[in-house]
Amino acid sequence: MASASLQFFAFILALFGVFGDIAATLLPNWKVNADVGSNIITAITQMQGLWMDCTWYSTGMFSCTLKYSILSLPVYIQAARTTMVLSCILSAFGICITTAGMKCTKLGGDTDSKNHACFAGGVCFILAGIFGLVPTSWYTREIISNFLDQTIPESSKHEPGGAVYTGFISAGFLLIAGVIFCSSCFKRQQGAWIYPPKQHHFPSTEQESNAGYNLKDYV
């Protein structure tokens, strides 16, 4: 029962991780630059994401521009696109696989098949967490290095946006969920190896000999 509730808790964490991973991939605020200027009325907030760049004006106007060209983008943005999409795909596969392998569901067949499914889903979650953690770390490093560079003007410097923090948290949720799923299946298999099921041997020969001896007594 404790293992089933722990798997359910890991599944909830994985769901939050999947939704956060998708949101972080699509959000345009990976890095933000707020230019107030001399007048608060003309304040501009520039946001840059993996797929589009958006500008928000204090007057209420909001405009976005898609990044159509892939080769013109920096290497870290291209890598972030690829790894975040892979993270979303792997986490979605993990959700489907663990749904069939969890103990609280009636899918997946026997106990061994469920354990294998949970282990495979846990591996998918761990890989998805790694693929989500690498681009967010690399992206944050580029933002910090550009911010500390004295040769770059202040108007071109940015700070990490909400999408980066969402990516970090989602990757952490996926990693925790994957470790829980894999460890629960591994402990169960290890217990089966250490403590094999006892085999009951019945002394059939002795019973037959005793039965024959008793029959001889009646002769």
From TrEMBL:
GO cellular component: bicellular tight junction; plasma membrane
Name under which the protein is recorded: Claudin
Transmembrane spans: 75-97, 117-139, 163-186
Pfam families: PMP22_Claudin
First and last residue of the signal peptide: 1-24
Family annotation (PANTHER family): CLAUDIN
Gene Ontology MF annotations: structural molecule activity
Organism: Dasyornis broadbenti
ATP-binding listed as a keyword: no
Membrane topology reported for the UniProt record: Multi-pass membrane protein
Keyword Transmembrane helix included in the entry's annotation: yes
Function as written in the Swiss-Prot or TrEMBL entry: Claudins function as major constituents of the tight junction complexes that regulate the permeability of epithelia.
InterPro entries per record: Claudin, Claudin_CS, PMP22/EMP/MP20/Claudin
Subcellular location: Cell junction, Tight junction; Cell membrane
Keywords: Cell junction, Cell membrane, Membrane, Signal, Tight junction, Transmembrane, Transmembrane helix
